[in-house]
Amino acid sequence: MKILLVEDDIMLGEAISKYIQATGHVVELVKDGTQGLQMIHDTNYDLLLLDINVPGMDGLTLLETTHNEKIQIPTIFISALIDIEEISRAFNLGCYDYLKKPFHLKELSLRIDKILQSRQVPQAHKRLSKSYSFDSETMTLLFNNEPHILPKRQLQIIELLSQHRSRIVTYDMFRDYVWNDDMIDNATIRAELNRIKNVLKEDMIINIRSIGYMVERPK
């Protein structure tokens, strides 16, 4: 797994990098959030480890920026901050875990392993059904490895569903990710989902009444 670590404490950053690399992962260390954002733009990472109080751009703003840019990477915050508002903001921005300094490096490794075991780390190519898969790098829906052409908005819907396999994607999540938080009513979202379901060759999109939709992870 390729990990970006944003940590301005040089000794701690190097200790984390050395320990995590010894467990088989690749770690790239930067010391400020602005550089971290540039690295995210230039490289595909599987996990972010972010301190909050770092120079340039703080860790919370960094995650908020990637969220606004539709970049979805599992994130663990490592910070000495214990302010409940900051912790709440971190989870509201979509972080997977929050580890308070000081911590044992083994504990961080266990948190990373937990993300791996839960299979929540995004992969570029995701299986959606017996015959369908989605390639997030090329934004291509594939049926038996052949492209199934869909309009951009419908591909964004499939992308969001693929990122949350076996989890419900709510109407608000569709509204935020696909329609950029425009005041779109649920009926409009349902109509778009129904158009997708009508052209698919397999019935893989499940309607969760009054809540949203989901695609189950193939067994």
3D architecture notes:
- This protein has helices at 10-22, 33-42, 59-68, 84-92, 105-117, 152-163, 171-177, 186-199, and strands spanning 2-6, 26-30, 47-50, 75-79, 97-100, 125-127, 132-135, 140-143, 146-147, 169-170, 205-208, 212-215.
- With 219 residues, the chain is an alpha/beta fold.
- The strands form three sheets. Strands 2-1-3-4-5 form a five-stranded parallel sheet, with helices on both faces. A four-stranded antiparallel sheet has the order 6-7-8-9, covered by helices on one side. It has a three-stranded antiparallel sheet with strand order 10-12-11.
- Helix 4 (84-92) links the parallel strand 4 and strand 5.
- Helix 2 runs parallel beside helix 3 (59-68).
- It is elongated and about 55 Å long.
- The two termini are 23 Å apart.
- The mean pLDDT is 88.
* Helix-residue proportion: 40-55%
- The fraction of residues in strands falls at 15-25%
Shape: elongated
With strands numbered from the N-terminus, the spatial order across the biggest sheet is 2-1-3-4-5
Residue stretches low in confidence (pLDDT < 50, at least 5 long) are none
Number of helices: 8
Radius of gyration, Cα only, in angstroms? 19 Å
Tally the beta strands.
12
**Helix-strand string:** EHEHEHEHEHEEEEHEHHEE
Which secondary-structure class do the elements indicate? Answer: alpha/beta
Distance between the termini: 23 Å
Let me know the largest β-sheet: 5 strands, parallel
The mean pLDDT is 88
